[in-house]
Amino acid sequence: MRNPDSLKQSPNEDTPRGLVFAIIAYVMWGFLPLYMKALAHIPAAEVVAHRVIWSVPVAALVLVVMRRTQDLKAALLSPRTLLLGAVTATLISVNWGIYVWAIASGHALDAALGYYINPLFSILLGALLLGERMSKRQLIAVGLAFGAVLVLALDSGSIPWVALGLMFSWGFYALAKKSLPIGPNQGFLLEVLLLLAPALAYVGYLTTTGQGNFFAGAPLDTGLLLGCGTVTAVPLLVYANGAKLLRLSTIGILQYIAPTMIFLVAVFVFDEDFGRARMIAFPMIWAALILYSSSMLQQMRQNRPAKVL
Fold first, then answer.
1. Containing domain of residue 123, as a range?
2. Where are the alpha helices (DSSP H) in the chain?
């Protein structure tokens, strides 16, 4: 299924519209911990269920307005697409669950670490699973990231599972997402549609057993749970449309906006402890990302076709 948007712009050129879309999406993701912290008293599984339920009407409305429903209809009739959609839906729900729990339980710094490491993990996946070659700087960057995780593990006496869980779930989600033969907007709606039945069943169970918070708790809780669809779907859809209008290198640099904002919110708003181990680990990650970015930019310049005068 061919995405008609692919005919409208060159993938090797940045556009002002794409830049605005991408920055808006990453800034919204950067502020998301503040919203999720307001729901910290509600179990993470219930919050994730409402993220799924209320994302469906938002994503569906976007497709209807954009007149992009045909690809979704075809996807629903394709067993292979449904299977791939089930895989990506499972991975994104796991990612959401870990993220919501991390913010609520005072592990926002670990969440920032996970999203910082993710680009480096994607490089490693590409090398191991897709046969992509890693440059020397990329190898060093991956080594620094591994070292940072080791520092945190040795300091705490346990594996930083929040950071690694977010890294693994999002990394494999992005990898599986590449195989979905539909556009990103249609793909997101397919994922939440596949998750809708279990989400409704879980919320129904909580409601009938008196454990739910929707309409049973404070009016503010109900409003925040309703808003989960908007804060979940809108950044993803804005990002998906912005990414199509930007070069890969530009997206690679902009993606650090969200974890940097999460880091700042964790330290200066949530007052999470930034101890000695993190003072060592985070600079190692930042150095790794500088190496990764410089290597990526160099490769993009080398692969760019020469201009004919």
1. 14-297
2. 16-37, 44-66, 69-76, 79-104, 108-129, 136-156, 161-177, 184-208, 219-243, 248-254, 257-268, 276-303
Residue 10: predicted pLDDT? 44
Q: State yes or no: pLDDT of 4 exceeds 50.
A: no
In a domain, 308, yes or no: no
Residue matched to tokens 């591994």: 146
CB 118 within 8 A of CB 167: yes
Residue 58 lies in a domain: yes
Per-residue DSSP letter, 181: S
Q: What dihedral angle (degrees, nearest 10) is formed by the CA atoms of 162, 163, 164, 166?
A: 80
Residue 110's pLDDT is what? 93
Question: Residue 9 and residue 12: Cα distance in Å, rounded?
Answer: 9
pTM of this structure: 0.85
Structural domain includes residue 85: yes
Would residue 263 count as lying in a domain? yes
Smallest CA-to-CA distance from 169 within 109, 93, 116 is with 93
Q: What is the pLDDT of residues 35-82, one digit of tens each?
A: 999 999 999 999 999 999 999 999 999 888 888 888 888 888 999 999
Q: Looking at residue 308, what DSSP letter applies?
A: P
- Domain count within the chain: 1
